[in-house]
Design a protein that fits this description.
This protein is an alpha+beta fold and 372 residues long. It is built from ten helices and 16 strands. The longest helix has 18 residues, at 56-73. Pfam families: Acetyltransf_3.
Length: 372
C-alpha cells in the first residue's frame, strides 16, 4: 500500500495579534479528534458538505490522506487552524488556474465568535496573494449562512451576487452567495453592516428579529387588515414567506440599507407585538419609518410608542433632522398611530400606496427634531 503524501508540504504560517497566536499548518494524525468534533457539530453539518453521519474513520482519512493528497497534486492548499496550541478548525485555498483560487473554511465550535478564524484567513490570504501569486480569490456560501458572509465581509470580499440552485449538498442544490477579493483590494469591509441596537422606551423593548419569530410574523401578515393595506404581501402568507422576510431584514443590515426591530413586552420578550424600522436614510438629513402591528396588539398603543422610540433614536443616534412616515388615506388606524406619535401631514401622493385592491392615495407625514 502506498503511504499518503507527507503533510510537510504545507508551510507553517503564524500570526500574533491581540495576545493570541494563530498558526496554520499541515494536518497530522492527532488532528482527527478535533476534525471529528468539528464535523459532527450541527452548524458544520448544516452549512458544509461533510458526510452525515460523520465517523472517526472519516476524520482519520481526511487528516491522514485527503488533505496531504491536496498538497501533493496541487488541488488544495489545506491547513489546520491552531489557536494558542489548540485545534480550532480548517482553512484552504483551492487553486483554479489563471492565478485564481477558492477560499474555504470551517471553525471548531469552541472558537466561533472569537475572531480567530478571521485572523487565520488574513494570514492565509496574504500567503496566497504574496507567495503563490494569486490575483483573485472567490468565496462561496449557501444563502443564509450569515456567519460566513460576515467573515468574508470583514476580510474585504465584495458579495457580487447570488445564484439559484448552485451549491450541491447531499443530493440537493442550494442557492448560493458569491464574492471576490482581488490582490489589490484592501482587506477591510467595503460597506457598512448595520447593527440592531436594543431600545427600551415607554414600557416596550425593541430587539432584533429572530428565527423563532416566524410564526408571529406569519400571523400578523396573514391578517385581513394587514393584507388589505400592505398590498405587496404575498397572499396567502406562509411561514416560508415569513422566513424570506426575516432574511431580507438581515440582508438590509448587511448592505447598510435599513434597521428593523421586533417590538415586544419586556415581560414576554419572545412574543413579537409589532415591527418597526427605519430606511431610506440620507445621512444627517432624513429617514423614513415603517411599521406593522400584530392583530392582538392593535389598539394598545404599542405601535405609537414604538414609532416614537424609533423617531427619537433617529434624531439622537442617526443625527437626522427629519423623519417621515406615510399611510394610505383610508387607513385611519395607521394614520391615527402616526399622528399620535407627533407627526404632521404635509401632503398627499396620488395613487402612492399599493393596497390589496390596487392603488390608493398616500398621506405623507413628517416630524422635525424639536428635542421632545
Amino acid at each position: 500500500m502506498t503511504p499518503p503524501p507527507s503533510p510537510s508540504a504545507a508551510p507553517v504560517l503564524t500570526s500574533h495579534e491581540g495576545g493570541r497566536t494563530v498558526v496554520l499548518r499541515g494536518h497530522r494524525p492527532e488532528d482527527a479528534q478535533g476534525c471529528l468534533e468539528q464535523c459532527q457539530d450541527p452548524l458544520t453539518q448544516r452549512w458544509t458538505t461533510v458526510p452525515v453521519p460523520y465517523t472517526r474513520e472519516m476524520a482519520e482519512d481526511f487528516v491522514g490522506r485527503v488533505m496531504p493528497a491536496g498538497w501533493a497534486d496541487g488541488s488544495e492548499w489545506g491547513f489546520v487552524v491552531e489557536v494558542d496550541g489548540r485545534y480550532a478548525g480548517s482553512a484552504s485555498l483551492r487553486p483554479e488556474g489563471s492565478d485564481r483560487a477558492e477560499v474555504a473554511y470551517a471553525a471548531h465550535p469552541w472558537v466561533r465568535g472569537t475572531g480567530a478564524v478571521e485572523q487565520a484567513l488574513r494570514v492565509l490570504l496574504d500567503w496566497g496573494f504574496e507567495q503563490q501569486g494569486l490575483r483573485t480569490v472567490v468565496w462561496w456560501a449557501e444563502r443564509g449562512n450569515w456567519a460566513s458572509r460576515k467573515t468574508a465581509w470583514r476580510l474585504g470580499f465584495e458579495v457580487d451576487g447570488s445564484l439559484r440552485a448552485w451549491l450541491p449538498q447531499r443530493g440537493e442544490l442550494h442557492d448560493a452567495w458569491v464574492g471576490t477579493l482581488r490582490s489589490t483590494d484592501p482587506r477591510r469591509p467595503r460597506t457598512r453592516w448595520l447593527e440592531v441596537p436594543t431600545l427600551e422606551a415607554d414600557g416596550l423593548l425593541l430587539r432584533p428579529w429572530r428565527d423563532t419569530d416566524v410564526a408571529r410574523v406569519a400571523e400578523a401578515c396573514s391578517d385581513p387588515e394587514s393584507q388589505r393595506w400592505l398590498g405587496q404581501l404575498p397572499a396567502p402568507y406562509t411561514d416560508r414567506d415569513a422566513r424570506a422576510w426575516l432574511e431580507d431584514v438581515t440582508e438590509r443590515l448587511a448592505t447598510g440599507g435599513a434597521v428593523n426591530w421586533a417590538v415586544v413586552d419586556p415581560g414576554a420578550p419572545d412574543r413579537a407585538l409589532a415591527s418597526v424600522g427605519w430606511f431610506a436614510l440620507t445621512p444627517y438629513v432624513t429617514c423614513e419609518i415603517g411599521y406593522w402591528t400584530h392583530p392582538d396588539a392593535r389598539g394598545t398603543g404599542v405601535a405609537t410608542r414604538a414609532l416614537r422610540a424609533v423617531a427619537r433614536h433617529a434624531f439622537d443616534d442617526l443625527k437626522v433632522r427629519r423623519v417621515s412616515c406615510a399611510a394610505a388615506t383610508g387607513n385611519t388606524a395607521s394614520r391615527r398611530v402616526i399622528e399620535q406619535a407627533g407627526f404632521t401631514a404635509y401632503g398627499v401622493e396620488r395613487l402612492g400606496a399599493l393596497v390589496r385592491d390596487g392603488r390608493a392615495d398616500l398621506v405623507l407625514y413628517d416630524r422635525l427634531d424639536t428635542g421632545a
